[in-house]
Design brief:
By secondary structure, the protein is an alpha/beta fold. It is built from ten helices and eight strands.
Length: about 240
């Protein structure tokens, strides 16, 4: 990172969008390019869901979820080259991507008390980055609208269901999790509906977010467009 960038105030990028739109890969790519930190907020909700399931808590019982929430301590690794998520000291970066967690996370993330706790933790990561004069890319579903409405740059990354399903299924298969495109498409549609209709911080595009439709774009093309927007924001 150049001396000029080191001297600049921390630059905060919010990347929102539905599942399978490429948020994580693009966000990590941008964070790496600019020497920023990286925070995957979706992984935090997955980590909570993982712990609840492992401890036989009914994720559809909001009262039970809230009663156990104080027992869960989340740690984020914000280096984009080596991100991780840990629960009570255990790295669960791989486990939270399993289907049993994916099926439960929407119910968990819809609980207002869970969202309040996670938002507080997410904002703390951004405050720490700002204190260290480090930029940060934060990705999720409500970053630009609820978590960081004052972010320096807001991106809403989307793609049609077919493109997202193909990419997500390919990613899952590459990482050893068997996935079929048709079932993945159905799962994504259900997740979209749940995330968009929940009462607490639903998935919506912030009014001042820049939409990027990645349906017909490759990864490098999306990264190049976001890079341009970041450089514009930095005055480069």
């Amino acid at each position: 990172m150049s001396e000029e960038l080191k001297r600049r105030p921390a630059f905060v990028v919010a990347v929102d969008g539905p599942s399978g739109s490429g948020k994580s890969s693009v966000s990590r790519g941008i964070a790496t390019m600019f020497g920023f930190r990286y925070l995957d907020t979706g992984a935090m909700y997955r980590a909570v869901a993982w712990w609840l399931l492992r401890n036989d808590v009914d994720v559809n019982d909001a009262h039970a979820v809230v009663s156990r929430l104080p027992e869960i301590e989340i740690e984020n690794g914000t280096d984009p080259l080596r991100p991780f998520i840990a629960v009570n000291g255990t790295d669960v970066s791989r486990e939270i991507r399993e289907q049993f967690v994916t099926s439960a996370v929407s119910a968990v993330s819809a609980v207002p008390e869970v969202r309040a706790a996670m938002v507080q933790a997410q904002r703390a990561e951004v405050i720490a980055a700002r204190d260290d004069q480090a930029g940060i890319v934060v990705e999720g579903r409500d970053i630009g609208t609820s978590v960081l409405p004052d972010a320096d740059l807001k991106i809403f990354l989307t793609a049609d269901n077919a493109a997202r399903a193909a990419r997500r299924a390919a990613q899952d298969n590459d990482e050893g999790r068997h996935a079929e495109v048709a079932q993945t498409a159905a799962d994504l549609a259900a997740r979209d509906a749940a995330d968009s209709s929940r009462t607490a911080s639903p998935l919506v595009q912030a009014h001042d977010a820049i939409e990027i439709d990645a349906t017909a774009l490759g990864f490098d093309e999306v990264v190049a467009e976001v890079e341009r927007l970041v450089r514009d924001g930095l005055g480069q």
